[in-house]
Amino acid sequence: MGAGDSPIRFGWYTGLAAAGIYAWLEVHAASLLEEAVHVPAGASRLNQDRLENTLRDMAQFSHKIPALPDEAFARESLYSDHD
């Protein structure tokens, strides 16, 4: 397969079982996620109580946040300053 060739178009993986490809992708994706969320040595992990307390603290003053109309989240509103 040459540079820029699509593996799907040329079907270079035809001999591989689809289940094998998906299993490899699943394992590879899981390892990438584990690397991305790796907790450094000595760092504390977030337990259920601490998570609930953190979420409660974050929501403590949420009643003071004004309600916005749905239009505020429309694409046109978010990108109104772009051409």
Fill in the keyword field for this structure.
single chain; 83 residues; mainly alpha; 47% helix; flat
Please, could you describe this protein's structure?
By secondary structure, this protein is mostly helical. It has one domain (7-78). It has helices at 7-10, 18-36, 48-59, 75-78. The chain is flat, with a radius of gyration of 23 Å. The mean pLDDT is 75.
How are the elements arranged and paired?
Elements lengths: L6 H4 L7 H19 L11 H12 L15 H4 L5
Short note summarizing the structure:
This protein is 47% helix and 0% strand. The chain is an all-alpha fold and 83 residues long.
Put simply, the count of helices is 4
User: Which percent range fits the helix content?
Assistant: 40-55%
Mean pLDDT: 75
Class derived from helix and strand content? mainly alpha
Shape: flat
Total of domains? 1
Radius of gyration: 23 Å
Order of helices and strands: HHHH
Assembly status: single chain
Euclidean distance between termini CA atoms: 41 Å
- Low-pLDDT windows of residues: none
Please tally the β strands and state the result.
0
**What characterizes the major β-sheet?**
none
- How much of the polypeptide forms β-strand, as a percent range? under 5%
